[in-house]
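Consider the tokenized backbone below.
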């Protein structure tokens, strides 16, 4: 049975910020929406294959990451039946420091 994807409020805020950033930079909300939709589709694939991410125990116990389009990294933890998205980091944001702060 597939896992359920749970997006934390912090990760949702990061996705929303990414949308606004792209919409402003591209001056096109449709471009930003397509980008975020593809990102969310990528995240949804974790429901079937959550173990495929890279373990990052050096940052936080149970943390895993997967890259997306060479500029984004999705950070998550696997719980019993859930994949909990704890962050979406784009274009060089210091994921290590931000996740250690929490």
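A designed sequence for it:
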């Amino acid at each position: 049975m597939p896992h359920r994807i749970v997006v934390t409020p912090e990760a949702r805020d990061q996705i929303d910020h990414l949308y606004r950033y792209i919409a402003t930079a591209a001056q096109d909300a449709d471009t930003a929406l397509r980008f975020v939709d593809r990102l969310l589709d990528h995240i949804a694939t974790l429901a079937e294959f959550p173990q495929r991410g890279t373990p990052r125990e050096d940052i936080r116990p149970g943390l895993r990451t997967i890259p997306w389009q060479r500029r984004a990294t999705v950070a998550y933890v696997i719980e019993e039946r859930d994949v909990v998205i704890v962050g979406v980091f784009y274009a060089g944001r210091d994921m290590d420091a931000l996740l250690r702060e929490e």
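The chain has one domain: 4-101.
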